[in-house]
Amino acid sequence: MIRCCSTFRRVASIRHLTTKSEQLQRALASRPTIYALATPPGKAGVAVVRVSGPHVFDVWKTIVRRNGKGKGKDIMEHARLIRCELLDANDGEVLDDGMAVFFQAPASYTTEDTIELHVHSSLAVLSRLMSSLSALPGVRQAERGEFTRRAFEAGRIDLTQAEALRDLIESETEVQRKWARKGVEGRAKVRYEAMRNDAILALATVEALIDFGEGEDIEEGAWDQARRRVSKLRANIAHHLSPSQRGEIYTSGLSLVIFGPPNAGKSSLLNHLAQREAAIVTPIPGTTRDVLEVALDIAGWRVKVHDTAGLRPSSDVVESIGVQRAGQAVEGADLAVCVLSLPELVNNGFRVPDMIGKHVTQETVALLNKVDAVDPAQLGEWLDFARMALPPGTPIWPISIQRGDGMSELSDGLAEVIKHRFHSEGDEPLITHARHRAHLEATLRFLDAFLALGVEDVVLAAEELRYAAKELSKVTGLIDVEDVLNAVFKEFCIGK
Ligand SMILES: Nc1nc2c(ncn2[C@@H]2O[C@H](COP(=O)(O)OP(=O)(O)OP(=O)(O)O)[C@@H](O)[C@H]2O)c(=O)[nH]1
Hints:
Layout: H1 2-29, E1 33-37, E2 44-52, H2 56-63, E3 64-66, E4 82-87, E5 94-103, E6 114-121, H3 123-134, E7 139-141, H4 146-153, H5 159-170, H6 174-184, H7 187-212, H8 222-241, H9 248-251, E8 254-259, H10 266-274, E9 292-298, E10 301-307, H11 317-331, E11 335-341, H12 342-347, H13 354-357, E12 365-369, H14 379-389, E13 396-398, H15 407-421, H16 434-451, H17 458-476, H18 481-491
Parallel strand pairs: 1-7, 8-10, 8-11, 11-12, 12-13
Antiparallel strand pairs: 1-2, 2-6, 3-4, 4-5, 5-6, 9-10
Helix pairs in contact: 5-6, 7-8, 7-17, 7-18, 8-16, 16-17
The structure holds guanosine-5'-triphosphate.
Domain MnmE helical: 159-493
GO molecular function: GTP binding; GTPase activity
Domain G: 256-354
């Protein structure tokens, strides 16, 4: 009896889903056609206006006239760029000549019928074209990201691919471009779908236990099997979340923090790297009061370089807040660069103040600046002393920002350190967005809650797994109900 009701419930819910999907199809067919300028606004050779939706044929028929031919559908050939005149829909006047291409559904970015109109990028041409498009029935201007949203809603891409497309458009460096491409290709999607699939398979096992009970119709040891699957999934997600798997540096960039005592040359270094006067430089110790950020491209990486206040005890309220912020910035840095003044070290007997020394590790790049201001005959000896004052193995680079000593080696050296420390060629999909991390952390909590339960709490356990699968669905933007049903029917011989 219970079995019948359960099966009935499942079939009813599938029907419900089918009805919903038909409704969705109808809704898609009746939605507005959207248009937008796909290139940056401004004066240029060419601008591309994209139009997508159910009224594309009417748009083409009304405003596209192939050179030497008439208007109409007969000249709409999939993915073929044609020379044409573009007409104003209101009065038929030729507003520009250009090119047009038609992409037949579903072989388009949005999966809808789509056209792209190439015109001269002029304010007057574009505004006339836009108002002409707006005048057509069922056509309106697209909202932000609406073309991509339609591609997502049609299942052409998942959320991680949509995010990667946004990253690609915003990429400024080679590493960002490479990683965005990996996302667009669907590497993250495949990984998260596999995780979600594991959660669903475990859920299917547990749901079968609820419906039929251990030993009846389903395999022996189903509960243990589900637990094993969940433990494995948990380990996989925990590994994915580990610090070594941080992929945000590839998309958002890595943070390089310059720190050290006041007056050592930190701001001078920032200005040198930025090749402009980004920070104020004076001989007055304590000039920099707050953290200053400049984004640079170093060896293809997006590097957010931070200049910080000189680390020293201070009774000045503003300076002490700056010092505190500097300390926090160093702690959170992907790469810490300590700037010390060699003459200053010589004067104070090579003592590195604790406030600075505690942040120096073998991972820190230590720059001994102002070598121009010490006796060249003693430079070798002073460098040996300085080396002894820092943790063994700390890389030490003597430089003079002012005179230029060691500065070209420094730029190449930093690029090498970054390339060596943060490989950009790995094939494993890493976490590239904080949103993914948040969902994975939530998933882990649900999996832990599941693992803390016993078979007597099977209903609760199923609930925890359902939440876990839902969290994973949120990463890719999928809905999970139908998949659970499929997995139940596929994995077990039920419903005979
Ligand atoms: N002789 C010499 N002076 C330098 C060199 N680099 C910087 N300076 C000078 O050192 C002083 C301090 O430079 P900054 O770049 O402001 O030093 P800072 O570490 O940012 O200083 P704070 O703002 O106090 O933290 C300025 O007068 C610079 O011109 C160098 O290589 N040699």
